[in-house]
Amino acid sequence: MNIFFDHGHMVGMHGFVWLFRLVLIAAVFVAVWGRSGRRGRSRHVSPHEILQRRLASGEITSQGYEERKRLLDRERSASP
Q: Which of 35, 32, 66 is nearest to 52 (CA)?
């Protein structure tokens, strides 16, 4: 007796198809939820924090940092 056939019908494979569909749906759900979840949990990073990180990593010099900081401070005081 073959477990995959019951009176000419494929019984065992039907279960595998449903299992595959459930796994596929779960993978899509995790991919979408994971992407939006990370976005929702991230906090806003201010321009000053970005500037400080760039200085700390050596991407800009202290002179460049001061110039950019002055520009940011000037824009902040000019905006309502």
A: 66
What's the one-letter identity of residue 5? Answer: F
pTM: 0.44
Residue 1, pLDDT > 50, answer no
Element (H, E) at 51: helix 47-56
**Whether 62 contacts 55, CB under 8 Å:** yes
Tokens, residue 32 = 């979408």
Residue 7 has which token pair? Answer: 């009176």
Question: Nearest CA to 47 among 13, 76, 24?
Answer: 76
